[in-house]
């Protein structure tokens, strides 16, 4: 049987009535927390003729799997394969059920692991009780946890990243990865893994807070309106934190892979600009998030387009020479934030403007693609050497560029990635993170900047 996208969703089969009961997410998380194994990786579609497919479990070393069963379901929720597990979890913590003996580190060989290559589910049960569930693609009957994981292309596996992480949502826990039967997918299970699943030292992503990014009615903090953004990056295996203090220095950027600067309110000094330029030239990733003109949240005369581009010669009325250039993005990164935008600009839905780029394609099938994103009154991007990726009405709102050994991306609206949880414990008005492809855009930009796309 040709491997089909199988949503690994281990199902509780009620033998008496022949029905499948779907357990709630809390039930799944409780069982996982008490030492139960989880489905950690599924490789269902090999290039060409199917061979070497596998399902990998992660769990406590030495745990007996007597009474455990893997059941595969098609897109309508009908089971088509059942695998009774034998033996126990090896000392490595990974139990691999392979289609054939060619699978590295295989623990049990069972031809039924040749799964469908279409939207599907796989479930792990213990003596009829549901333990874990994974669904992927767009099955008509989702027997997984939360929203289903993305479908992956032939040659890629669906991998839980970090290993063993179970947030209750397959879309948050799984991503496309190079098949890695019997070894780590990358990550530690606590959000400190390596983005991209490449193993080794975790890649660090910092959100800047040195430029009053939480001023006024903005709350672009990972413990505030950008908390969903920060959590999504942790789920991908990145170490996520805040760059605080009064300035950005080379020392502060040491060990950082990606720096996100969301709608800065204060200008950058010549020294800070030099530190950031060196950071990017040496392989760092920089994500610049702007907003419309007249968005001066702290009443110091600076709004984010001016902070990124440099003093406009008007407001504030007087600026010292060490701050006039501010970040000078046009000369350093080949793009700028348009001074022609205003608060009266309409709400746009930006869409891809042609061509193929990893940020738009997502790298792992349609579930990670960016098809549209909201611009909730922002500013457009003027292109120099950068490439425009998304826009509306002839204006560019997403641009990307390679600078030296590093990468830079710019997006024209800070509200795109906000949720409605604020750092002071109150609830905000807007929850844009789950709208359109906003979340995919936020994730994919960082993944590209980190070199993982």
From TrEMBL:
Organism: Deinococcus aquiradiocola
Chain intervals with Gly residues compositional bias: 184-200
Bias (Low complexity) ranges: 144-159
Coiled-coil regions, chain positions: none
Residue span(s) of domain LTD: 25-138
Region Disordered, residue ranges: 139-201
Keywords on record: Signal
InterPro entries, per the entry: Class_I_gatase-like, Lamin_tail_dom
UniProt-recorded name of the protein: LTD domain-containing protein
Keyword Signal in annotation: yes
N-terminal signal peptide: 1-23
């Amino acid at each position: 049987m040709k491997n089909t996208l199988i949503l690994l969703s281990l199902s509780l089969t009620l033998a008496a009535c022949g029905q499948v009961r779907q357990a709630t997410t809390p039930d799944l998380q409780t069982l996982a927390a008490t030492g139960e194994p989880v489905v950690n990786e599924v490789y269902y579609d090999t290039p060409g003729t199917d061979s070497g497919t596998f399902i990998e479990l992660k769990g406590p070393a030495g745990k007996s799997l007597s009474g455990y069963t893997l059941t595969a379901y098609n897109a309508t929720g009908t089971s088509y394969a059942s695998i009774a597990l034998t033996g126990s979890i090896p000392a490595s913590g990974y139990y691999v059920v392979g289609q054939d003996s060619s699978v590295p580190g295989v623990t049990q060989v069972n031809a039924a692991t040749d799964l469908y290559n279409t939207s599907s589910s796989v479930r792990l049960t213990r003596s009829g009780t549901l333990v874990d569930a994974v669904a992927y693609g767009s099955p008509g009957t989702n027997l997984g946890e939360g929203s289903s994981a993305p479908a992956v292309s032939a040659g890629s596996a669906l991998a839980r990243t970090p290993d063993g992480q179970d947030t209750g949502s397959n879309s948050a826990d799984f991503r496309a990865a190079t098949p890695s039967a019997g070894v780590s997918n990358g990550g530690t299970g606590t959000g400190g893994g390596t983005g991209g699943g490449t193993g080794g030292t975790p890649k660090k992503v910092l959100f800047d807070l040195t430029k009053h990014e939480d001023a006024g009615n903005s709350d672009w903090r990972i413990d505030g309106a950008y908390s969903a953004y920060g959590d999504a990056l942790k789920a991908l295996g990145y170490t996520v934190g805040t760059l605080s203090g009064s300035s950005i220095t080379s020392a502060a950027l040491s060990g950082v892979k990606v720096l996100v600067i969301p709608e800065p309110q204060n200008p950058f000094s010549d020294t800070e600009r030099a530190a950031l330029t060196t950071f990017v030239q040496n392989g760092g990733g920089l994500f610049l998030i702007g907003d419309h003109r007249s968005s001066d949240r702290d009443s110091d005369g600076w709004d984010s387009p001016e902070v990124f581009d440099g003093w406009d010669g008007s407001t504030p009325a007087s600026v010292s020479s060490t701050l006039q250039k501010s970040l000078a993005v046009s000369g350093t990164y080949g793009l700028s934030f348009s001074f022609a935008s205003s608060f009266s600009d309409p709400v746009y839905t930006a869409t891809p403007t042609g061509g193929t780029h990893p940020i738009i394609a997502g790298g792992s099938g349609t579930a990670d693609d960016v098809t549209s994103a909201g611009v909730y009154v922002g500013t457009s991007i003027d292109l120099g050497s950068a490439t425009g990726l998304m826009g509306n009405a002839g204006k560019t709102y997403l641009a990307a560029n390679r600078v030296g050994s590093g990468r830079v991306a710019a997006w024209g609206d800070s509200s795109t990635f906000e949720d409605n949880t604020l750092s002071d414990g109150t609830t905000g008005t807007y929850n844009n993170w789950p709208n359109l492809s906003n979340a995919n855009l936020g994730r994919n930009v960082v993944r590209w900047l980190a070199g993982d796309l």
